[in-house]
Amino acid sequence: MAEPGAGGPGALLSSGSERRCRARLAAGGRGAAAAAAVLVPLCSVRGRPAMLFTLRSRRLGGPHSGDVSFPGGRRDPADGDAVATALRETREELGLELGEPSVWGQLRTLPDRQGLMVAPVVANLGPLENLRLAPNPDEVAEVFTLPLAHLLREENQGYTHFRTAGRYGYTLPVFLNGPHKVWGLTAIITELTLELLAPEHYRSKTVAPARHRSA
What we know:
By secondary structure, the protein is α+β, with helices and mostly antiparallel strands. Helix content is about 20%, strand content about 30%. Strands 1, 2, 3, 4, 5, 6, 7 and 8 form an 8-stranded mixed β-sheet that branches. Strands 9-10 form a two-stranded antiparallel ribbon.
């Protein structure tokens, strides 16, 4: 696969790319009202554009413990909107204070496994070397990054077919060959983010269940 962007992978987080992505996010529909939000943290690691992920602590229990995820959670009554929820959750999970200028915009809402509508909020953290992360061990077992160039390589992309009522139902993406497999809702949000950043270089793997195709 050819390197994305006129300047290679580094161009994906350039000021020109940011302007394009902000405009596309502002113009896109957000879908159903969200009961939860996650931050999709773009960053650079030694000058290479990347995406930051967390591994949820098994202390949390429940269906998402031990999963690869993005910082996020349910909306609090005091949160003004999904952006406020995503920023608050990032502060609570990673000890990272981000201002709204870091936020590029919101992708469309998506249902999680329990049907809870989740709003993905895209933000650029800047160079990771300039940040001091303080993960909350009660919520986060590990923090890791994957270069965008890695995520865009076809050999690191996969998919899973699911059956419902004994027949083919839907297909979801997975991202492979990193420290942990990225799957589930986190993989779907990763895919939407890659489509936003590099629409000419990423081919969607998702075939949504019929009840969600019009969302």
